[in-house]
Design brief:
Mean pLDDT: 82
Number of helices: 5
Helix content: 25-40%
Shape: globular
Radius of gyration: 15 Å
Largest sheet: 4 strands, mixed
Distance between the termini: 27 Å
Length: 143
Amino acid sequence: MLPEPYRLHHRADFSRTVRRGRRIGRRDLVVHALLTTPASDDAGEGTVGPSIRIGGPRFGLIVSKAVGNAVVRHRVARRLRHICASLAGEAPTEADIVIRALPGAAAASSVELDRQVRAALRKLLPENDAAATAVADPAGRSS
């Protein structure tokens, strides 16, 4: 389970990350990432107040009906939450990350989804950031 401080909850946070963040597509998912600063959080953009950052990076998942029926969607979401929990200590604390599952995610293995998410984050996060280089494939494979 993904701990509370690591989750995106509000629609405005999802929208801001998808609209203003960087995006990269993979075969089974699309990853959006936005590095926030206190100044950009205070901008508001339809939120009631500024977002308070307590823990680390925040993750949001989008798993639509195109992925499959409810059982399949929940299975994909559980797999992605597990991947996000393993990345929580490795991604920069100011990152908001939204992962949109594509229909192929239903048939992909957890290892394959993990590889795709990590490869996407390596490309999206700044290379000069030490935390971005920590988001490496645990098996040491390159993608």
